[in-house]
Amino acid sequence: MAAPAPELMDDVVEEILLRLPLDDPSCAARASAVCKHWSHLLADAGFLRRYRAFHRRRAPPRLGFIYDAGSPLARFAPTTAFRPADLDHDGWKPMDCRHGRALFRTSASAVLCAVSGCDHGGCHGGPFAVAFVANYVMEGEEEEITSPTSAWLYSSETGTWSAPSTVRHHNAEPFPKPSVLAGDGAVYFLTWHGRNILRYDLRKLDLTVIASPEIDDDDFENHLLMTTEDGGMGLARLVSGHSLQLWSWKPVSAAAAWVQLRVIDLDLVIPGDAMRPRLLGFAEGTDMVFVDTTYDGAQVVQQIELSTLKVTKVLDECYASCVLPYMSFFLPGRQKGKLPPSAITLIFTLTDDVVEEILLRLPPDDPSCSARASAVCKPWRRLLSDPVFLRRHRAFHRRRAPPLLGFIHHVSDEPARRVPSFAQFVPTTAFRPAELEHKNCWPLDCRHGRALFQSSNVELTIWDPMTGDVRRQREPYGTLCTFATAAVLCAVPGCDHHDCHGGPFVLVFVGNDEDDDGEEIASASSYSSETGTWTAASTVHHDDSLELESKPSVLAGDAVHFLTYFGKAILRYDLTKLELSVILPPVAYGDGDALLMTAEDGELGLALFDGEASIHLWARVAGAGWVRRNVIDLYAVLPFFDPVHSLSLVGFAEGTDIIFLHTIHGDYRMELKPLQISKLWEKDRCFNIFPYMSFFVPGRDRNKLPSPTIIASI
Question: Any idea where the F-box domain is (predicted)?
């Protein structure tokens, strides 16, 4: 038995966690739930700096959008796995979203982090400031276009508003579109008709007015504040519905002036027949603007990267007047020493019944899901390995046989001479064993969670792909056999063989040669891992050749069955009596092919390809001999079938009604009931397929997780 895996060093853990995806907070949440050490590391400021540098992110990832859905109704539209506690805020109008916070109001306002020296990658729970701008008529004054506009700053630390800073200017009424925080320590707000921009200095608490570049009155809705590459204040403007002008406000001597950076023709950028677009939002720290277009009456929000002019649809059927990107890193316990109030904190307070109902729905054909769930906490791990829960899990998914996790097949330049090159594992799910290839090995069998290989030095290798265990055993007859094959079986009494890992096993070895009189003779022995010995050989003579096929054996009843070349005989080894006998096939298949399988009642079955256009399915029934159960017309299921080119029967999944076919067009999986066929892969030289089938049970045999590669997809 292999030694337990050593604990990971801090450096190794850090390298693993550095590779968690930025735009999926659920990954960091799951990792922080594994243990306190991981949670502390994920919240460490030094690690977070490395994390962002590793992913080369200047700005936090975008997790979703907040937009005005009318009525008024503020709605959060997630673009990742992140979900806030509330997706809708009825009666609220979104005004700003910055530094991990969203702000709602009916007038122009901005929210900002107030932590000194903060990089604003994960601002949650600390002090903040709100800049509020409003235009109003003083009591006793007549309403006029020069009514004053004032700005205030609120501090969450003092709980007070600053004294107002007021300007009188025509067309200075704030327009409810996103504000911009520029690198000069000021917040900028757009005014109605886009003729002016309000600048509020956060240090001096001073409000001033900046005149916009000359505009057309018809384009007053198509203005958007943004930041430029150097962090300054910029302006995006749509002219004539298709020309996007980008401006930068730059100081010249003691004054300031507008500089036009570029003009983009949106007709060449936005695909399709879209109606007149509108500018809805901008993602600070990036070069992304958001526009809406209308296709067939439906409003669609699209993202435009200004540096590359790449266009991506981000929201479908979204009727919004503005879009505010929510951008933040996930930081477990950054502010309060605990996880945020999300679903990840509820996993420890859920009742056992609720947890069991959740875990019952984990897909059986993806071991990584069970591996991730078992890493959350010890109660979940114990539940996932409980035999009663496992029976419920299989019954819930109506699984008679373990799920198919992959295939083992051989790759050789000289298959006719049985010269092994290497055996290869081909995954069909997220499961990956520690080793995908085994050099200088020939696959013989795969059953009950184990794979069996034969090497050129007359040695058998038993491999458990789930745990990574490898056992080696010498063949019983050395080099005396001209042709030989073997089978592997679980030896645990009463086992249902759904998750056989680490227990005792049995090998059955069968070889054939000629005796002293030149007659064909076959011999069989069984090996027990509990006793470590081979049984005495059981032999049988036959008039025809007993040269053994390299095709998969079949366990039917209390016997293992092996096929000989040209289908002249089937060798049956009784596991109880330890006796070898010969069974004759129902018919000779001539130029066709044959494959052993099990029938519906668990008895021995045989699939025969007649070399023309049909596969005949036979079952060996007690007291009646061979009975033909079905005939499959290959022209009906394989439209490309050509009898000129050979078809081979290369594998069978025990406990199912699935057989595998090899053609010149590739390898196929055929379900017999109902009759369905699907392509596995494109290959022109695949000779035998050994399905690997097993459930994943955390810590079933060793009280530890299996091979680390199973956890690789966490």
Answer: 8-51, 350-393
User: 3-class SS at 65?
Assistant: strand
- As a whole number of angstroms, the distance between CA 150 and CA 162 comes to 11
CA–CA separation, 527 vs 273, rounded Å?
73
Give dist(CA 133, CA 152) in Å, integer. 7
Whether residue 379 is found in the same domain as residue 236 = no
Measured CA to CA, the distance from residue 536 to residue 542 in angstroms comes to 20
What is the 3-class SS of 645-670, one letter each residue?
CCCEEEEEECCCCEEEEEECCEEEEE
DSSP code string of 490-559: E--TT--SSS--SS-EEEEEEEEEE-TTS-EEEEEEEEETTTTEEPPPEEEEESS--PBP-SPPEEETTE
Within a domain: residue 549? no
Q: Can you point out the beta strands (E) in 588-714?
A: 593-598, 604-609, 614-621, 625-633, 648-653, 658-663, 666-671, 676-681, 690-693
| Residue 355 identity (one-letter amino acid) | V
List, for residues 53-83, the tens digit of each pLDDT value: 777 666 778 888 888 776 667 888 888 777 7
**Residue 531: predicted pLDDT:** 92
Domain boundary among 294, 327, 360: 327
Pick the range with the lowest mean pLDDT from 23-37, 286-300, 460-474. Answer: 23-37
User: Which pLDDT score, from 0 to 100, does residue 57 have?
Assistant: 62
Which of 34-38, 121-125, 420-424, 640-644 tops mean pLDDT? 34-38
Beta strands (DSSP E) in 202-274 are 206-211, 223-227, 233-239, 243-252, 255-265
Alpha carbon distances (Å) from 658 to 599, 653, 670: 11, 6, 6
411 and 387 share a domain? no
Residue 653, domain member (yes or no): yes
Residue the block writes with tokens 């095709």: 551
Same-domain check for residues 392 and 454: no
Distance from C-alpha of 44 to C-alpha of 48, rounded to nearest angstrom: 6
395 SS3 class:
helix
Predicted local distance difference test score (pLDDT) of residue 272: 60
Q: Is residue 474 part of a domain?
A: yes
One domain, residues 366 and 425: no
678 and 645 together in one domain: yes
DSSP state of 177: S
pLDDT reported for residue 254: 54
| Residue range(s) defining the domain that contains residue 380 | 347-400
Residue 355 lies in a domain: yes
Number of domains in the chain: 3
Shared-domain flag, residues 658 and 683 = yes
Pick 241 or 19 by higher pLDDT.
Answer: 19
- Verify that 351 and 248 share a domain, yes or no: no
**Would you give the end-to-end CA distance of the chain in angstroms?**
26
**pLDDT per position as a tens digit, 399-415:** 667 888 888 887 655 54
Pairing, β 450-455 against β 441-447: antiparallel
CA distances from 429 to 124, 367, 369, 433 (A): 38, 8, 11, 11
